[in-house]
Amino acid sequence: MDWSFRTAEQLAAALRTGEVTSTELTEEAIARIERDDKTINAICVPDFDRARATARAADRARAGGEDRPLLGIPVTVKESYDIAGLPTTWGMPPHRDHIPVEDAVQVSRLKAAGAVVLGKTNVPVGLQDVQSFNEIYGTTRNPWDHARTPGGSSGGSAAALASGFGALSIGSDIGGSLRTPAHFCGVYAHKPTLGLAASRGMVPPPAPALPTELDLAVVGPMARSARDLTLLLDVMAGPDPLTFGVAYGLALPPSRHERLSDFRVLVLDEHPLIPTGAAVRAGVNRVADALVDGGARVERHSPLLPDLTEAAVLYTQLLFANSAARFPAEAYEQLRTRAAGLSAEDLSLGAARLRGMVLSHRDWIGADNRRELHRDAWRRLFAEYDAVVCPITPTPAFPHDHHPDSLARRIDIDGVAYPYLDQLVWAGVATMPGLPATAVPAGRSPEGLPVGVQLIGPMFEDRTPLRLAELLEQAIGGFQAPE
């Protein structure tokens, strides 16, 4: 029997009844990777010997009466997480030989839950692209169309899931890095509420793995079903035991509703700063129609929605302040000179990126204060709605574009070119205020490419968009293996 595309929930049930062993699942996954990954290039650092040993240990543990949430289930891990004994490079050639001696906290949680780690998945350089290629490991290809990207920066994880290389994966997200690859590859992902899941050990080399509280960035689960996202989030969620975990325990509230007919949903398909391509708009409408058919209250406009233009500019400044913080002094001074030359009337996203790279601490505090106003506006919106449905990016997966200057790249939206980085504005809708967002499949483009949407929920009410994702999976279908 082929188990490669079964959900983790299905595999756990089969393992419990003895229908299959972890050793059999692991050998099947390894065989599939060795056969198919020469083309996809999703698994950049295999760890097959230890995976086999872990699978055998899982079978012995189960025979002895043990049962843990992921006991014996093959999974993958994004390259950016530390795994003791394996390289963590973030795709940066100077660090190709960096080998941590300790697991990231999330890898430790996977292992404690009984997972079998098959290896690590590919990423872009420094995790800073909507694609996944680097000089060390090469280019990861979309399983649906090898000429296109699987997305980034968790593109290797999404491609692995779509190819049947393990049932689950863990990634990270600051600019849609969980959601965009899920959208491009037809799988599921969940960007948790900011701070919900500890991130220690998901750090660029050679920095030490300290329990830092990140701004904007989160770690989260990827899967081939909505229920599997919840299964894996329950393993990942919780404070770092070195910091907040000393005093605090986790108690996520249940979903606001269990039935589709009880949900109140705001649906968005237009952004003031970039058009939505026809294929993505069709995906949003397909979800909206399913919500209406299921009896949910669906609205297309609300005066409670925070200003999307202001939100996008604020997100862009915070994001690029984060990314430029480690630039060399000479490069930083050049950016300051360029930013000083901007016209005060230039309110483009390009100008926001440049200004963000050189924000003073005073200006960052001002931006952070404006973010709190947006968070308050979202709280008021979620008093009237349970979720917001909107695009993840304006297009399905696009052809590989390895131009070294991302500012020179363009994204084609229904035949019209737009600045490449402007596509991040939809990711920022949830990222800037720190809201949870679940990426779900929503059909296919006319070319047969996957299309997804995101379900944004109230802060720390992650189970609400996750439950809505489950109900939509029942209503419109979910993951399908690439044809």
Automatic annotation (TrEMBL):
Keywords: Hydrolase. It is an enzyme of class 3 (hydrolase). One of its GO terms (molecular function) is amidase activity. This is Amidase. It comes from the Bacteria. It comes from Kitasatospora paracochleata. The lineage of its organism: Bacteria, Bacillati, Actinomycetota, Actinomycetes, Kitasatosporales. Its EC number is 3.5.1.4. Pfam families: Amidase. Residues 24-464 form the Amidase domain. The keyword Ribonucleoprotein does not apply. The keyword Hydrolase applies. InterPro entries: Amidase_CS, Amidase_dom, AS_sf, FAAH2.
